C-alpha cells in the first residue's frame, strides 16, 4: 500500500509539461561540444522545431536590432561614450578612476570599434550584435531553468522586447551588461545542478565581465550568490566543505575585479554624498521598470506582469527553489534600487538584467495554460502573443525619432550662424552631442558652456555686438535645480525653435 501511495504521489508531482515536445520525440544528436559536426548540425536544423524556431527568432532579432541603426542622432549619453572612447586605454581607465560612473570595458571596446570609422552605426554596432546574441542566450537560460519550451518563449520575449531593442540600438553598456549577466546566470544554473568547479569558475569569470561592463550588475551577481547560500544552507550546516565551489567563484570574481572594486567603493561614496538631481525615486522606480521592460505600454504591462505572477506560482509548484529564485532576485533588486534611488540617480535601464528574471517567469507561466489545454499550440501561441503586444510600440519606434535630433538641429544652426557669432550650450555638458555634429571652426563661431544664470550673465556681458545662440535641453533642470538659468533665458533671450523631437531648444539674443 505504501508503495502504491508513493507511486501516486510521484505521479501527481510529475511535470505534465514534459509531454509538450515540439520535436515529436526527435532526440538531438548534440549532447556536448564534441558532438558538433556538420552532419549533426544539419540534422538539428532539419528536424528540430526548437532549433528552427530559434533560428527564425534570431533572424528577426537581427533585423529589429540593425534596422535604422544610424537613423537617430547620438544623444548626450552616447556622445559621452564617443568623448571617452577616443581616449587611450590608459586615459579611459583614468576617466573611470576620476569619477566617471561607468566601468571602462565598454569604452575600451568602442575605442577599438572607432578604428573602423566614426558614425552612429559604428558606435552602436557592438550593442546591436550583443542584443542579437542575447536571443539564443535567453533560450539556453530558459531551457536550463525549466525546459526547451520555456527557453523558446524567453527567447521570443527577448526578440520582440521594445525595451531590449531600444538599448540594442544605443551606444551604451547596458546590452553588454545584460549579455554577460545572462552568460553568468546560465553557468550559475548549471553549476547549481552539477556542482562542477568549471561551471562555478565560469560563473565567477562572466560575473566579473558583467561588473566591468556596468557597476549595477553587482546587484544581480550578489542576488545569485545569496540564492546559492539559501539553497545550500542545509548542506553547509552539515559540512562547510560544500562552500568550496561557491567560494571558488567568488575568488575568481574578486581577483578579476579587484582594481574596479576599489574604484567602485570610492565612486559610491562620491555618488551618494548628495541627493540625486535626476532619476526616479521610491516606488516609482519599481513601477517604471515594469512598464519599460514589459513593452512600454500599459496593456502589455498588465498582461505580462500577470503572466509573470502566474509563472512564479507555477515555479513554486514545479520546484520550490525555482520560485524562490524568481522572487528573491526580483524583490532584492527592487529593495536595493528603492533605497538607492534616494541616494543616487536611479533609472530602469540600470535594472535591464531583470528582463532575464521577468521573461523566465513569463515563460514558466505556459505551464498552467498547457495543463489546461494540452496542445503544442500553447507554446507557439505565447510567441505570437509576445509579438502582437510589442508590434504597436515597435511600429511607432521605427517610424519616428526616439532620441533628440542633434544632427538636424546642428545643421539648422550651421545655416543660421554667421562668423563671429557665439553658441552657448546650456547646460555646458550638452556640448558633447552638439560638437559631434556642429563644427564651430567651419562656421567660424565661438562655443561656450553655461550652467547657471551667473554664467549666462557673464557671457552676455562679454559678447559685445555679437549674436548669441543658446542651445538648451531639459538637462538644465538637473544641472541647475533652482531654475535660475531657465528664468534668465525667459527674460533675456528670444525663442528661435526646436529640433523635430522638441527635446532641444534654441534661443537667440542679438
Folded structure, characterized:
The chain is mainly alpha-helical. Helices cover 66% and strands 5% of the residues. The protein has helices spanning 2-13, 38-47, 49-66, 76-85, 89-97, 105-113, 120-145, 148-160, 162-168, 174-194, 197-213, 217-231, 233-238, 244-271, 283-293, 298-318, 320-340, 354-364, 366-372, 377-398, 406-416, 431-437, 440-443, 453-462, 476-479, 484-492; strands at residues 422-426, 446-449, 468-473, 494-498, 504-509. It has a 5-stranded mixed beta sheet with strand order 2-1-3-5-4, covered by helices on one side. Helix 8 packs across helix 18 (354-364), helix 12 (217-231) runs antiparallel to helix 17 (320-340) and helix 21 packs across helix 22 (431-437). The longest helix has 28 residues, at 244-271. The protein is globular and about 80 Å long.
Q: What is the strand content?
A: 5-15%
- What is the share of helical residues? 55-70%
The number of helical segments is 26
Backbone CA Rg: 26 Å
Average per-residue pLDDT, rounded, comes to: 93
- Which outline best applies? globular
Q: How far apart lie the N and C ends? A: 97 Å
Sheet with the most strands, sense and barrel status: 5 strands, mixed
Strand pairing plus helix content: what structural class? mainly alpha
Number of DSSP-assigned strands: 5
**Strand ordering within the main sheet:** 2-1-3-5-4
Which parts are unreliable, with pLDDT below 50 for 5 consecutive residues or more?
Answer: 1-17
Amino acid at each position: 500500500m505504501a508503495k502504491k501511495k508513493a507511486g501516486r504521489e510521484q505521479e501527481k508531482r510529475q511535470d505534465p509539461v514534459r509531454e509538450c515536445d515540439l520535436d515529436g520525440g526527435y532526440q538531438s544528436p548534440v549532447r556536448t561540444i564534441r558532438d558538433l559536426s556538420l552532419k549533426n548540425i544539419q540534422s538539428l536544423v532539419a528536424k528540430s522545431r526548437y532549433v528552427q524556431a530559434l533560428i527564425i527568432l534570431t533572424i528577426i532579432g537581427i533585423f529589429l536590432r540593425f534596422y535604422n541603426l544610424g537613423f537617430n542622432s547620438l544623444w548626450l549619453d552616447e556622445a559621452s561614450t564617443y568623448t571617452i572612447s577616443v581616449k587611450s586605454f590608459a586615459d579611459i581607465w583614468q576617466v573611470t578612476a576620476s569619477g566617471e560612473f561607468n566601468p571602462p570595458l565598454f569604452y575600451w571596446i568602442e575605442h577599438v570599434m572607432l578604428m573602423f570609422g566614426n558614425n552612429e552605426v559604428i558606435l552602436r554596432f557592438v550593442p546591436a550584435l550583443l542584443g542579437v546574441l542575447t536571443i539564443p542566450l535567453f533560450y539556453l537560460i530558459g531551457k536550463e531553468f525549466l525546459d526547451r519550451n520555456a527557453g523558446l518563449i524567453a527567447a521570443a520575449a527577448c526578440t520582440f522586447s521594445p525595451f531590449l531593442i531600444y538599448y540594442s540600438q544605443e551606444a551604451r553598456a547596458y546590452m553588454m551588461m545584460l549579455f554577460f549577466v545572462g552568460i553568468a546566470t546560465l553557468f550559475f544554473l548549471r553549476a547549481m545542478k552539477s556542482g562542477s568547479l568549471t561551471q562555478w569558475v565560469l560563473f565567477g569569470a562572466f560575473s566579473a565581465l558583467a561588473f566591468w561592463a556596468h557597476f549595477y550588475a553587482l546587484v544581480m551577481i550578489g542576488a545569485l550568490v545569496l540564492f546559492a547560500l539559501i539553497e545550500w544552507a542545509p548542506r553547509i550546516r552539515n559540512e562547510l566543505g560544500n562552500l568550496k565551489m561557491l567560494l571558488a567563484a567568488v575568488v575568481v570574481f574578486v581577483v578579476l575585479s579587484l582594481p574596479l572594486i576599489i574604484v567602485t567603493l570610492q565612486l559610491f561614496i562620491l555618488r551618494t554624498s548628495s541627493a540625486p538631481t535626476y532619476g526616479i525615486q521610491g516606488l516609482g522606480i519599481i513601477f517604471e521598470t515594469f512598464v519599460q521592460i514589459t513593452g512600454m505600454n500599459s496593456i502589455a504591462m498588465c498582461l505580462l506582469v500577470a503572466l509573470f505572477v502566474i509563472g512564479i506560482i507555477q515555479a513554486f509548484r514545479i520546484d520550490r527553489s525555482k520560485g524562490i529564485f524568481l522572487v528573491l532576485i526580483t524583490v532584492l533588486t527592487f529593495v536595493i534600487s528603492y533605497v538607492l534611488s534616494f541616494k543616487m540617480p536611479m533609472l530602469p535601464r540600470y535594472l535591464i538584467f531583470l528582463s532575464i528574471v521577468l521573461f523566465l517567469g513569463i515563460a514558466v507561466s505556459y505551464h498552467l495554460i498547457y495543463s489546461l489545454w494540452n496542445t503544442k499550440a500553447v507554446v507557439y501561441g505565447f510567441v505570437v502573443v509576445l509579438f502582437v503586444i510589442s508590434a504597436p510600440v515597435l511600429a511607432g519606434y521605427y517610424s519616428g525619432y526616439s532620441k533628440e535630433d542633434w544632427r538636424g538641429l546642428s545643421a539648422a544652426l550651421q545655416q543660421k550662424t554667421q562668423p563671429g557669432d557665439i553658441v552657448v550650450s546650456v547646460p555646458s555638458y550638452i556640448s558633447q552631442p552638439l560638437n559631434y555634429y556642429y563644427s564651430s571652426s567651419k562656421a567660424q563661431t565661438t562655443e561656450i558652456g553655461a550652467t547657471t544664470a551667473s554664467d549666462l550673465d557673464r557671457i552676455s556681458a562679454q559678447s559685445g555686438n555679437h549674436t548669441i545662440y543658446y542651445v538648451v535641453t531639459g538637462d538644465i533642470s538637473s544641472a541647475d535645480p533652482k531654475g535660475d538659468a531657465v528664468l534668465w533665458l525667459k527674460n533675456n533671450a528670444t525663442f528661435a525653435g526646436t529640433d523635430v523631437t522638441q527635446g532641444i531648444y534654441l534661443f537667440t539674443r542679438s
